[in-house]
Amino acid sequence: MTTASRPAAPSLRASVALIAGREITSRVRSKSFLISTGILLALIIASIVGTHLFTSTFGDTRVAAVGVAAELLDGAPGLEIEEAASLAEAERLVRDGDVEAAVVPLDDPAPGTPGVEIVGLSDAPSALVQSLAIAPEVRLLDPSPVDQGIGFIVAFAFGIIFFTAAITFGGTVAQSVVEEKQTRIVEILLTAVPAKALLAGKVIGSSVLALGQILLIAVAAGLSLMLTGQDVLLTDLGPAAVWFLGFFAVGFVLLAAMFAASAALVSRMEDVGTVIQPVTWLVMLPYFLIIFFNDNETVLTVMSYVPFSSPVGMPVRIFLEQAAWWEPLVALALLAATAVVIVQLGARMYRNSLLRTGARVPLAEALRG
Amino acid sequence: MLEIRGATKRFGDRTVLDDVTFGVGAGRLTGFVGGNGAGKTTTMRILLGVLSADAGEVLVDGRPITADDRRGFGYMPEERGLYPKMRVHEQLVYLARLRGMRAADASAAADELIERLELTERRDEPIEKLSLGNQQRAQIAAALVHDPSVLVLDEPFSGLDPMAVETVLRVLAERAARGVPVLFSSHQLDLVERLCDDVVVIADGRIRAAGTRDELRARGAGRQWELQVGDDAGWVRGLHDIAVIDFDGDYVLFEADPVAAQSVLRLASERGSVERFAPRRPTLTEIFREVVQ
């Protein structure tokens, strides 16, 4: 044509990278995003550290022990033992306030009792009394490898992380689609790049953001657990958390494509909420299921395979050690296959609706062709 | 050369474009005029491929247009829009890079346009913080930043103050001088008349006139005449075969065929001195009013 050298067409990959990069920078630069991420991280750290502080006592109880009592108390949690040579010395330590109480052996203990007595000044520290109380032996007929309470907390945590991240970042994708339609910049963009590049850039950009935030959450939670000495829980949680990340990555691509395709049906920001409602419900479903049915193995098994709930269901089953090694692989393959189909349908809806302004585009028309 | 041939578009039962055919020559500033709802925007959207025609085709240098051609177009849509929160320079660079420019070239081109369009102080401000006039300049920059091979601008001058109009005009004329076909629509017919090489008039979805500005004006010429004499020209009003349109002492504007006009001139010179006698070239506004009726 008339002007000299026109630059070569950018490859699809280059266009997608450029578009994804813009999505990410524009989001990361927004103050509300930074503030909400900060608050989220603070809440997570505070809840882990707070729970730890609440359950453990504030510092160890100093206790004097005489003779065999010292051996008996050795290794008891929450106690700092100071060995005393005699009953008299132990009593002196209590009187002086050097220790809160003393544990001394009885001369002739009654059968079935610990054989020691607690010497306190005006009252006895409860931590000490507890550690000396006799707990009956427990025998489980069907032992669960993991504590039910912890199981629920983990299920709830996966559920709420999935739910909030999907809603937040899915909402961002939807808004970004409508922003381009509403400002009509989409008309300029489409003369430069194909619709599929635009969609792919948005989905990838928001997936990177969502995964990044979840990784931050994982790191914050892991560090908090380690710093509060709950490494044991961390080791149990590790594999489940890694699977969760994998499932989330694939599952979010699926959801983001659905959010984008739905949002493309409308042309005004005010209509975004209504049009993405069905997808929102789909995101909330696994969250509610996991809360109500986390102790129902059948429901959990079904959930762990259904593509929309497997990102929560399968990691929970992995944590509860209910899943065989191949199960997450099958579920992940199912999720990926669904994502491929949905992303293609979504791309068609997106392409068909992008340039249609005014009234909401009927779903049947968007899917045509 | 950008051409549209036989373009027809229906929305439901309504035919918005009916067999639209015209061309935009290389290096020509072409004004696209028509009333509201005449089909200007629809035509431009079809040229850009953001709307598909029911029939007809768009040609570039005589062959059907490709996506690659369109990537080289500069387009300013009717409803303005850039990313509200993106900074001016950053936004221009982004748009240029989407069209395949290297980052450094894109940045340099953006800076040059920012300077030409007098946006230097707003370079790193988000679009939403700019005044409407400055947003408009940024929008024009967005259409130009990738050194387009064809320019299609929908109402580029609306909302600009007279100074800004001149600035934008200079930039557009410069692009045309480099050989770029430039098509722009406008309601401001005086502007189109002043600066366009070619004019296309559309009404009710049909092209009513298309050609060089001078051709169009000449087409309407030859029917109206101006006569200025040394003394009172009142006697012209008594003549047959002519219709006086305007009369003011020694000046008269009348409509007549060339033979009748010549006889008026003869009569005038018999009566006294003739200061001026000439066919009157109608303004574009008058032609427009006439062709769209």
UniProtKB/TrEMBL annotation, chain A:
GO terms for molecular function: ABC-type transporter activity. It is a multi-pass membrane protein. Its main location: membrane. Keywords: Membrane, Transmembrane, Transmembrane helix. Residues 31-346 form the ABC-2 type transporter transmembrane domain. InterPro entries: ABC2_TM (IPR013525). Coiled coil: none annotated. GO terms for cellular component: membrane. The chain crosses the membrane at residues 32-54, 150-174, 208-228, 240-265, 272-293, 329-347. It is found in: Membrane. This is ABC-2 type transport system permease protein. It comes from Microcella alkalica. The lineage of its organism: Bacteria, Bacillati, Actinomycetota, Actinomycetes, Micrococcales.
From TrEMBL, chain B:
It is found in: Cell membrane. The lineage of its organism: Bacteria, Bacillati, Actinomycetota, Actinomycetes, Micrococcales. SUPFAM superfamilies: P-loop containing nucleoside triphosphate hydrolases. One of its GO terms (cellular component) is plasma membrane. GO terms for biological process: response to antibiotic. The keyword Calcium does not apply. The keyword Heme does not apply. Residues 2-229 form the ABC transporter domain. Gene3D superfamilies: P-loop containing nucleotide triphosphate hydrolases. This is ABC-2 type transport system ATP-binding protein. It holds the Pfam family DrrA1-3_C. It comes from Microcella alkalica. Keywords: Antibiotic resistance, ATP-binding, Nucleotide-binding, Transport. It is a peripheral membrane protein. One of its GO terms (molecular function) is ATP hydrolysis activity. InterPro entries: AAA+_ATPase, ABC_transporter-like_ATP-bd, ABC_transporter-like_CS, ABC_transporter_ATP-binding, DrrA1/2-like_C, P-loop_NTPase. Belongs to the ABC transporter superfamily. Its main location: membrane.
